[in-house]
Every structure is written in structure tokens, then in C-alpha cells.
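Consider the subject:
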Amino acid sequence: MTRYAFTNVRIFDGTGEDPYLGDLLVEDRKIIQVARAPAGVDTQGARVFEGRRRFLMPGMTEAHTHFSWNDQPSLAAIQFMPPEEHMLWCVRVAKRYLEMGWTSAIGAAAAKPRLDVVLRNAIAAGEFPGPRYLAGSQEITTIGALGDNTLPHMPFQELSFGSVCSGPEEIRRSARTFIKYGVDHLKINLSGEYIAGLPAEMSPFSEEEVAMLAKEAKRYGKRVAAHARSSESVKLCVRHGIEMVYHASFADDEALDMLESAKDKHFVAPGIGWLIRTTYNAAEYGITEAVAAQMGYKRELEVASESLRKMHRRGIRILPGGDYGFAWMPHGTNANDLQYFVDYIGMTPKEALLSATALGGEIMMQPDSLGKLRAGYTADILLIDGDPLQDLSILKDPAKIQLVMKEGTIYKDCASPSPADAALHLDGADFPLREEGVKEALAEMH
């Protein structure tokens, strides 16, 4: 039996309460006690972390993840990475996410058919460190739409970014193929995308094609995620029960009414970071602010900000994540979304943290075991040096994320476990302190 005790920490428990001073006890994979000061926990036989009032919070969930996006500036550069190197890339990126505090993630589409499935299985088997992961399919698309990058002289499906379908029967075949491979959910591109040369307000799929996908997913007990920037694509999601709505930038009042009426069934992961970073941070890669405006991204950012503010006021569930893994928004910088939620959607810092924690447990389909620091919940825990509620940018700094625990296993240990008894077994087995930790302890003593 493994026991860990976090004492003298400020606990953000994910329930909506303000942080409070207290202790927390982990036994094996579970949180077994949360005590509010002046009460404490039984530290006998535990490794004790004296928190020095540092910030203890649940692990975060990234709701719109593309592990196989390889920090390159184009879709083609992502797709043409050979599969052997691509799998290794995914393994390394998964570790990066975990060390940045993302203990769960939703695969929003893989660049090759089985990358997500193989990665999920390897993480679950303990072969490599990474977030708890739900694997997605490739993007299911149609001829000429986002994800179809076949060439006229080389019309080979294997060279395409997505699974290119035309008509309900081809949709059925694609869905069943990915389900055979073992995905947790299917992904369909229901709208366009400016960087692919397609208007974001375009909706290329017919009602019958979307109905077929939804029917096949339901038959096999799978969820569906949709790239859905256009208003019509959002309405398609609601009409056909597509649970995970990605982007939703141009949702009009009718679409918002539909989402609100079924808000217990749907999640929105807007990927607003993609709009912001592409508009203002991609000049080095040829997309200046003027070019982004010409493409349509600047206008979409303005429209999306207003649409998402309305969604937030209506109580529609909005979660962080989306399209990280391009050169101007590399993997590991995902916590930018939290500040973007404050600046562009009107959330408070607390609401932004809850979107990454409590709502994360809901989208992972484990609302009673993930996303909160409560007795009986899975021990996904972060120890943060600083207060994210005062400065969300702390969560972008690897040095500030001082401990990462997933399912009771520590994957990233304290960078400065000061004072001197902050990291020791009470049975006498000491753990080495870093030099800077000793200096901090001595400074506090004086």
C-alpha cells in the first residue's frame, strides 16, 4: 500500500468552492481523505509533502487533443511524417502533456488511422507515461473538404489527411473500419477551415451522411466529435446527438438555443487558441495579421468570442483544448486557453480552472471519479508553486508545476520540496532535496 500526504496546502477542490487551507491523503490510486484546517490527515506510513501553502488542484483535461500534430506549420508536414517516427513523436508528446499537468485528454483526430489507439493502449498498459486518453479516429471528411489532401495525379486514400467519403454507405464503411481499429469515438469534419482553403461557414456533409455516422456510432456504443465551425454544422451536431462539438464559432441564435436545450448532452471545446495564435502569432510562418484577416481568421475570432460569451452565459459546457501542435502553438502551451477563456469568453479565473478540471471529469465520462479533490476520487493531483487564480500563466511554466500525480503515481516530483521534511517517508527512508530547496528552507528559517 502506497500512501502520500499533502499537508499545509491551499486546496482548490474542483467543486466551485474557493481554495481553503488543509491536508489531503492518497492511498494507492485514490484520495481517501481531504481535511480542512485546523483538522489534518493521518500521515503514518506516508510520504509527506509539506506544502508551504502551495496550490493543490485536480489534474486537468485537454478536451480537443491532436497528439500526432507535430509542431509543424502545415497539414501536409504533419501527414507526411513516416509512421514509425510518428508513433515515437506521439509517445514523447504524451509525456510532455502529463508533465504540464494534463492528466486526461480526448483525442480529437489522429493523422494516421491507428496512432491514437496504439498510444492509448501503451499508456494504459504503463509502457509509457501520458494522460489518461480516449482515442479518436482520423478525420472523416468528404471530397474536397477539410482533410482531403489527395492530389489529382495521386488520388490515393493513404496519402490523405482524413478518411474521404462520399455518400452514406462510404460513411458507414469508414465508421466501421475505425471502430474495428478500436477507437473510443469517431471524428467528422462538418465544416470548412480557412487554412485548408475552405470557408469556415461552409457545411459540406448532407443530412443523410451525418445521420448514418450517428447511427453507426450509436450501434457500437461510440461517441462522435465534430469539427463544426459553421452554424449549420452545430445544428447538425444537436440534431444527431454528436456529443463533442469542436469550435462552434459561427453558432447563430437558433444554434445556441438548440445547444442550450440539450446542454446536458453536449460539450464545446472551441479551440479559441487556434484563432488567436493564427491571427496574431503566426507571422514567422507567413500568416501575418493582415494575411489572417484576409483568410478570415480575424473576423472568426471576433464572431466566436461573442458566440462563446453567449454560450457561457447560457450554461453550455465549454472546455479548454484545440489544435495545439502547430508551429505557432506547440504542444505544451495548452494552458494559454485558460487565460483566453477569461479574456475572450468572459469567464472568471475560477470558472476557467473548473472548465479544465470538473468539466474534464464529465467529458471523460467519469464525473464521479475525475476532476475533483474529494474522498473516493481518483488521485489525479497537481501541486503548483503560486496561485493560478491570481495568475493563470503560472500553468504555462513547467517549473511552477512542481508535482504531477496520475492515479496515485507521481510522474513529476517536487522541484523544491522545502522545508527539509517536505519529502520523506516517515519510516525513515529519506529523499534527496535539490540544492535550491535547501536554500529556500534556510532562508525561511532566518
Notes: The two ends are 38 Å apart (CA to CA). DSSP finds 14 helices and 18 strands in the chain. The chain has two domains: 3-59+369-445, 60-334.
